[in-house]
Protein backbone atom coordinates (compact mmCIF):
# COMPACT_ATOMS: atom_id res chain seq x y z
CA UNK A 1 0.00 0.00 0.00
CA UNK A 2 1.29 3.54 -0.81
CA UNK A 3 2.91 5.28 2.15
CA UNK A 4 3.21 2.09 4.21
CA UNK A 5 6.57 1.69 5.94
CA UNK A 6 8.65 -1.10 4.40
CA UNK A 7 8.93 -4.23 6.53
CA UNK A 8 12.17 -4.27 8.50
CA UNK A 9 14.41 -7.29 8.34
CA UNK A 10 15.50 -9.01 11.54
CA UNK A 11 18.93 -7.47 11.09
CA UNK A 12 17.48 -3.97 10.68
CA UNK A 13 15.36 -4.46 13.82
CA UNK A 14 18.44 -5.72 15.62
CA UNK A 15 20.24 -2.47 16.24
CA UNK A 16 23.47 -3.81 17.66
CA UNK A 17 25.95 -5.67 15.53
CA UNK A 18 27.91 -8.41 17.35
CA UNK A 19 30.72 -9.51 15.04
CA UNK A 20 32.39 -12.80 15.95
CA UNK A 21 35.86 -13.72 14.65
CA UNK A 22 36.99 -17.28 13.93
CA UNK A 23 39.24 -17.13 17.00
CA UNK A 24 36.44 -15.98 19.23
CA UNK A 25 34.07 -18.57 17.83
CA UNK A 26 36.58 -21.37 18.38
CA UNK A 27 37.16 -20.22 21.96
CA UNK A 28 33.41 -20.02 22.63
CA UNK A 29 32.91 -23.53 21.18
CA UNK A 30 35.67 -24.87 23.42
CA UNK A 31 34.06 -23.19 26.43
CA UNK A 32 30.77 -24.84 25.45
CA UNK A 33 32.51 -28.21 25.31
CA UNK A 34 33.84 -27.81 28.84
CA UNK A 35 30.26 -27.50 30.04
CA UNK A 36 28.98 -30.33 27.86
CA UNK A 37 31.70 -32.65 29.10
CA UNK A 38 30.05 -32.57 32.51
CA UNK A 39 26.67 -33.56 31.05
CA UNK A 40 27.60 -36.32 28.55
CA UNK A 41 28.72 -38.81 27.36
CA UNK A 42 26.80 -38.55 24.10
CA UNK A 43 26.28 -41.27 21.48
CA UNK A 44 26.06 -38.81 18.60
CA UNK A 45 25.98 -35.14 17.71
CA UNK A 46 23.07 -33.80 15.65
CA UNK A 47 24.02 -30.59 13.83
CA UNK A 48 21.27 -28.20 12.77
CA UNK A 49 22.46 -27.07 9.36
CA UNK A 50 23.95 -25.03 8.21
CA UNK A 51 25.07 -22.83 11.11
CA UNK A 52 25.30 -25.77 13.50
CA UNK A 53 27.85 -27.60 11.35
CA UNK A 54 30.81 -25.49 12.48
CA UNK A 55 30.24 -25.74 16.25
CA UNK A 56 29.23 -29.41 15.86
CA UNK A 57 32.61 -30.25 14.29
CA UNK A 58 34.51 -28.50 17.08
CA UNK A 59 32.39 -29.94 19.89
CA UNK A 60 32.50 -33.48 18.44
CA UNK A 61 36.27 -33.26 18.10
CA UNK A 62 36.70 -32.16 21.72
CA UNK A 63 34.27 -34.76 23.10
CA UNK A 64 35.61 -37.60 20.94
CA UNK A 65 32.24 -38.22 19.28
CA UNK A 66 32.54 -39.67 15.77
CA UNK A 67 28.90 -40.08 14.82
CA UNK A 68 27.52 -36.83 13.47
CA UNK A 69 24.13 -36.48 11.84
CA UNK A 70 22.32 -33.45 10.45
CA UNK A 71 18.84 -32.07 10.55
CA UNK A 72 18.53 -29.65 7.65
CA UNK A 73 16.21 -26.71 8.26
CA UNK A 74 15.80 -23.54 6.23
CA UNK A 75 14.01 -20.52 7.65
CA UNK A 76 15.96 -17.28 7.26
CA UNK A 77 16.40 -15.89 3.79
CA UNK A 78 19.53 -13.91 4.72
CA UNK A 79 17.96 -12.08 7.70
CA UNK A 80 14.19 -12.48 7.19
CA UNK A 81 12.56 -15.48 8.82
CA UNK A 82 9.94 -17.31 6.78
CA UNK A 83 8.19 -20.64 7.37
CA UNK A 84 10.44 -23.38 8.61
CA UNK A 85 11.17 -26.08 6.07
CA UNK A 86 12.65 -29.41 7.10
CA UNK A 87 14.77 -30.40 4.11
CA UNK A 88 16.20 -33.51 5.78
CA UNK A 89 15.18 -35.20 9.01
CA UNK A 90 17.28 -37.21 11.48
CA UNK A 91 18.62 -40.49 10.11
CA UNK A 92 17.19 -43.83 11.19
CA UNK A 93 20.59 -44.81 12.62
CA UNK A 94 20.81 -41.73 14.82
CA UNK A 95 17.20 -42.20 15.92
CA UNK A 96 18.08 -45.73 17.02
CA UNK A 97 21.11 -44.49 18.96
CA UNK A 98 18.78 -42.08 20.76
CA UNK A 99 16.25 -44.84 21.53
CA UNK A 100 13.65 -43.01 19.43
CA UNK A 101 13.43 -39.99 21.77
CA UNK A 102 16.92 -38.52 21.48
CA UNK A 103 18.21 -39.88 24.80
CA UNK A 104 22.01 -39.51 24.87
CA UNK A 105 22.07 -37.36 21.73
CA UNK A 106 23.52 -33.86 21.57
CA UNK A 107 21.84 -31.30 19.29
CA UNK A 108 24.16 -28.42 18.34
CA UNK A 109 23.38 -25.09 16.68
CA UNK A 110 25.24 -21.80 16.43
CA UNK A 111 22.46 -19.80 18.12
CA UNK A 112 18.84 -19.56 19.18
CA UNK A 113 17.05 -16.35 18.26
CA UNK A 114 13.23 -16.60 18.31
CA UNK A 115 13.61 -20.28 19.25
CA UNK A 116 11.46 -21.52 16.33
CA UNK A 117 14.20 -23.72 14.86
CA UNK A 118 15.18 -25.14 18.25
CA UNK A 119 11.55 -25.85 19.15
CA UNK A 120 11.03 -27.86 15.97
CA UNK A 121 14.13 -30.00 16.58
CA UNK A 122 13.25 -30.50 20.25
CA UNK A 123 9.89 -31.87 19.15
CA UNK A 124 11.72 -34.43 17.01
CA UNK A 125 14.09 -35.41 19.86
CA UNK A 126 12.46 -34.50 23.19
CA UNK A 127 15.06 -36.26 25.37
CA UNK A 128 18.15 -34.92 23.59
CA UNK A 129 20.44 -32.30 25.10
CA UNK A 130 20.31 -29.03 23.14
CA UNK A 131 23.40 -26.82 23.07
CA UNK A 132 24.07 -23.55 21.26
CA UNK A 133 27.01 -21.19 21.38
CA UNK A 134 24.89 -18.02 21.60
CA UNK A 135 21.36 -17.41 22.85
CA UNK A 136 18.93 -14.52 22.63
CA UNK A 137 16.29 -14.18 25.40
CA UNK A 138 13.30 -15.45 23.37
CA UNK A 139 15.05 -18.71 22.48
CA UNK A 140 16.98 -19.19 25.67
CA UNK A 141 14.39 -21.31 27.56
CA UNK A 142 14.70 -23.97 24.86
CA UNK A 143 18.44 -24.45 25.29
CA UNK A 144 20.03 -26.71 27.90
CA UNK A 145 23.57 -25.35 27.58
CA UNK A 146 24.92 -22.19 25.93
CA UNK A 147 27.88 -19.87 26.41
CA UNK A 148 26.96 -16.23 25.71
CA UNK A 149 23.62 -14.47 25.91
CA UNK A 150 23.11 -11.41 23.70
CA UNK A 151 20.11 -9.08 23.71
CA UNK A 152 17.20 -9.72 21.37
CA UNK A 153 18.04 -6.54 19.42
CA UNK A 154 21.53 -7.79 18.59
CA UNK A 155 22.48 -9.32 15.26
CA UNK A 156 25.33 -11.82 15.44
CA UNK A 157 27.67 -11.74 12.45
CA UNK A 158 29.40 -15.10 12.08
CA UNK A 159 32.89 -15.37 10.56
CA UNK A 160 31.65 -17.55 7.67
CA UNK A 161 29.21 -14.78 6.65
CA UNK A 162 31.65 -11.88 6.84
CA UNK A 163 34.99 -10.64 5.49
CA UNK A 164 37.59 -8.12 6.64
CA UNK A 165 36.84 -4.66 5.26
CA UNK A 166 37.76 -1.01 5.82
CA UNK A 167 36.01 0.67 8.73
CA UNK A 168 36.02 4.51 8.83
CA UNK A 169 37.21 6.19 12.06
CA UNK A 170 34.58 7.26 14.56
CA UNK A 171 35.48 10.96 14.30
CA UNK A 172 34.77 12.73 10.97
CA UNK A 173 37.93 13.64 9.12
CA UNK A 174 40.18 11.61 11.43
CA UNK A 175 41.33 9.42 8.53
O1 LIG B 1 15.81 -19.28 16.80
P1 LIG B 1 15.46 -18.97 15.38
O2 LIG B 1 14.77 -17.63 15.24
O3 LIG B 1 14.69 -20.05 14.70
O4 LIG B 1 16.81 -18.74 14.59
C1 LIG B 1 17.96 -19.51 14.78
C2 LIG B 1 18.33 -20.26 13.53
O5 LIG B 1 18.52 -19.32 12.46
C3 LIG B 1 19.78 -19.54 11.84
O6 LIG B 1 19.69 -20.51 10.83
P2 LIG B 1 19.10 -20.21 9.38
O7 LIG B 1 17.68 -20.63 9.30
O8 LIG B 1 19.41 -18.79 9.03
O9 LIG B 1 19.90 -21.17 8.42
P3 LIG B 1 21.47 -21.45 8.30
O10 LIG B 1 21.88 -22.12 9.56
O11 LIG B 1 21.56 -22.32 7.10
O12 LIG B 1 22.15 -20.11 8.13
C4 LIG B 1 20.63 -20.09 12.97
O13 LIG B 1 21.72 -20.86 12.44
C5 LIG B 1 19.67 -20.96 13.73
O14 LIG B 1 19.60 -22.26 13.19
MG1 LIG C 1 20.75 -22.42 11.33
Automatic annotation (TrEMBL):
Pathway: Purine metabolism; XMP biosynthesis via salvage pathway; XMP from xanthine: step 1/1; Purine metabolism; GMP biosynthesis via salvage pathway; GMP from guanine: step 1/1
Cofactor(s), names only, from the UniProt record: Mg(2+)
One GO BP annotation of this record: XMP salvage
Domain of life: Bacteria
Record-listed Mg(2+) binding positions: 110
Residues given in the record as 5-phospho-alpha-D-ribose 1-diphosphate binding sites: 50-51, 109-117
GO cellular component, one term: plasma membrane
Ranges of residues in domain Phosphoribosyltransferase: 21-166
Entry keyword annotation includes Oxidoreductase: no
Enzyme class per UniProt: transferase
ATP-binding found in the keyword field: no
Positions contributing to GMP binding: 113-117, 155-156
Topology class, membrane: Peripheral membrane protein
Localization in the cell: Cell membrane
Annotated binding of guanine, by residue: 113, 156
Keywords recorded for this protein, A-Z: Cell membrane, Glycosyltransferase, Magnesium, Membrane, Metal-binding, Purine salvage, Transferase
CDD domains per UniProt: PRTases_typeI
Matches recorded under Pfam families: Pribosyltran
EC number(s) given by UniProt: 2.4.2.22
Known catalytic reactions: IMP + diphosphate = hypoxanthine + 5-phospho-alpha-D-ribose 1-diphosphate; GMP + diphosphate = guanine + 5-phospho-alpha-D-ribose 1-diphosphate; XMP + diphosphate = xanthine + 5-phospho-alpha-D-ribose 1-diphosphate
Protein family membership: Belongs to the purine/pyrimidine phosphoribosyltransferase family. XGPT subfamily.
Role of this protein: Purine salvage pathway enzyme that catalyzes the transfer of the ribosyl-5-phosphate group from 5-phospho-alpha-D-ribose 1-diphosphate (PRPP) to the N9 position of the 6-oxopurines guanine and xanthine to form the corresponding ribonucleotides GMP (guanosine 5'-monophosphate) and XMP (xanthosine 5'-monophosphate), with the release of PPi. To a lesser extent, also acts on hypoxanthine.
Subunit structure: Homotetramer.
Name the record gives this protein: Xanthine-guanine phosphoribosyltransferase
Higher taxonomy: Bacteria, Pseudomonadati, Pseudomonadota, Alphaproteobacteria, Hyphomicrobiales
Amino acid sequence: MAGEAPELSAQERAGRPFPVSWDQFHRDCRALTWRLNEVGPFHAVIAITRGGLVPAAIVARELGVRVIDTVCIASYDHDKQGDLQVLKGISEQAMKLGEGTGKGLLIVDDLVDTGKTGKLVREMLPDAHFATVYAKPKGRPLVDTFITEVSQDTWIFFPWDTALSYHPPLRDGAA
